[in-house]
Amino acid sequence: MDQPLAEQLPSVSAQSPSIGRSARRALKAAVPALGYLIPPLIALIIAGVVWEFWVRAADTPTYIVPAPTKVLDRFFGGLSYFWWHGWVTLYEGMLGFALGAGGAVLFAIVMASSRPVEKSIMPLAILVKVTPIVAIAPLFTIWFGFGSFPKVLIAAFLTFYPVLINAIVGFRSMNPGAHDFLRSVNASPAEIFLRLRMPSSLPYLFAAFRIVIPLALIGATVAEWFSGDRGLGSVIIVAHNNLDMPTLFSAIFTLAIIGIGLTMLTWVLEKRLTFWHESNLAR
Amino acid sequence: MSLPHHVTVESIVKRFTAKGGDLLALDNVTLDVCDGEFLSIIGVSGCGKTTLLRLMGGLETPTAGKVLVKGSEPREAQRHKQIGFVFQDPSLLPWRTVQQNVLLPLQVNRQQDAAGHPRAQAILSTVGLEEFAQYYPHQLSGGMKQRVALARSLVFDPSLLLMDEPLGALDELTRSAMRYELLRIWEASRKTVVMVTHSIAEAVLLSDRVAVMTPRPGRIADIIAIDLPRPRKPGIEREPAFLDYVERIQRLLMTGGHGGPATGRTTALR
Q1: Per-domain boundaries in chain A
Q2: What's the predicted TM-score (pTM) here?
Q3: Which residues from chain B sit within 8 angstroms of residue A277, using beta carbons?
Q4: Which of A239, A254, A266, B76 fits A247 for a cystine, CB–CB 3.0-4.6 Å?
Q5: In whole angstroms, what is the distance from residue A3 CA to residue B190 CA?
């Protein structure tokens, strides 16, 4: 049985450098990400420790400010509870975002192609924008009840205007030479839109998405304050009424995690789709 | 010239209406481009030469007069993809690779077939970029981008190539190398070419005829036939005949074609 072992040895030693190489490569790829993650994480931990000591030293009652350990205890104790309500808010916010952004892009296509249409729709869009959403939210409850729909609608309202403005600018900011070239080879307006206007507008659209995705989440949360018993907004209101600070802070914590996740997802998609844009080339 | 006319420009007037007042860009311009010839339009900035080129390609419509490409409207030539445009700015699509940029005109109107890829690759090797097919425009130099723009206009084999200062954005060294590149490509394909340029040497080196324009309003001062043998080789710029043409065009540009010592309607060299 000595023979096979001897035969195995070289193969193992031949394999190990390749394992080492791939591990090193993975580490190299992870290092920049760690560079982004570790400093704020350290800052967060320090802030948490200071907070904990301050609460204990001053003997602050839990119904005013809870200690971080109490919040974490509540959060991890009710993980499925917060996850379920978080999922409701995430779903409402993102469905609203999709509807609002989709509608805004459709309006922008029409408005970017005709100044008269833009002039007639834009004042109405501004009207939607300047009306405080908290003023409309109770109305939506009366009209559409206690389900998800009014929340989705409010998230969509908040999304609409910034996406509309950026999409119009984006659809118009294309390389004039590329436009001339496409015209000279008999490209139809639809082809010019798909091959030139739409890709040219992506950096503008993503700039809007970065603003609007957190807004849609805020919209859904605030809408949940007014009606219903689902979602982190209603968790916050109930916890607030009961002075249940650990639950309230855990709900905020859950919202923050969802917000970070969405922001990172947007960032990755943006890098993928607009790698060619000046803003991503300048280093 | 007895060759059939590829482009006919007849008594064109082009007026732009702007807030500051109307601008007469072209005033009664008449010009014929023969089949297979290389014609350059030269003039100072703002003399309307780009407008004239855009009219020939159907990107502008004349205020009066008419433009015919092979006997019909430029729009008709566009429909049959008979016009290849090259602009000063390469105007490539930055999200497409070099190869995808070259394939773009074939994809328009869904005309790309199985022959598209090999054809794009062949054109890329004509312009010396076969190894850069999978690169993105931002990874290329200015001269390389302009060669991609040229390949993009050659890939669908248009009979008419319209170039608006194609080498204008390049540095002097790249530019002189690209001139010979352009000369080589044209001498191989023999398309009808109309090129707008600022450079007299470039116009003389490449062209069969040079149309000299004067500004405000844009008019053609004279059309000079460049009677230099082809193929034109490097070093031709130092030959006396070449320098005579350069000097003659220079004088036309300075005097605007009115009353200078070298003016007149003669198209031949003294």
Answers
A1: 84-275
A2: 0.81
A3: 94
A4: A239
A5: 74
